[in-house]
Write a structure and sequence with these properties.
Blueprint lengths: L2 E3 L1 H5 L8 H8 L5 E4 L1 H14 L3 H16 L1 E3 L3 H14 L3 H12 L4 E3 L3 H9 L3 E3 L6
Parallel strand pairs: 1-2, 1-4, 2-3, 4-5
Helix pairs in contact: 3-4, 5-6, 6-7
């Protein structure tokens, strides 16, 4: 099984947040992580925003870079962007969320791991399974 891992889930691996332990426990059960190219931008931006530029940021960035190498990355090509636009029209998903959903659909990923309530709701409207251990919708 593959897990589509969005930015909200990945960040829990590098920043201590509620449900970080539960998220890590889920992610270690499957070594096949899928995510879209824009996750790189989202994650690095948020690591900088939340951790600043000190040693903690550098450690988290190094950890993220290692994990990024193991991800199967879905490229944002014209077809994927068209699919994301259609998903956004159907579900009302925000732009970056629609890109995540289109990538998950394109790779036939069984489960999306997210802690973003709006993304989870849109994923379910698209018929995708959602995992977010420790959080209720």
């Amino acid at each position: 099984m593959s897990l589509y891992v969005d930015t909200s889930a990945l960040l829990k691996l590098y920043i201590e947040e509620p449900d970080s332990d539960a998220c890590e426990a889920l992610l270690v059960t499957d070594s096949d992580w899928v995510t879209a190219r824009h996750t790189l931008v989202e994650a690095r931006r948020n690591l900088q925003r939340l951790l600043g530029s000190g040693d903690e940021h550098l450690d988290a960035l190094a950890q993220f870079t290692d994990d990024w190498q193991r991800c199967r990355v879905v490229e944002l090509d014209a077809g994927l962007c068209l699919s994301a636009a259609q998903i956004a029209e159907r579900t009302g998903a925000r732009t970056l969320d629609a890109l995540h959903l289109a990538a998950a659909v394109a790779t036939r990923t069984a489960t999306i791991v997210t802690y973003d309530r709006r993304l989870a709701q849109a994923a379910r409207r698209e018929g995708l399974a959602v995992a977010h251990p420790g959080q209720d919708d």
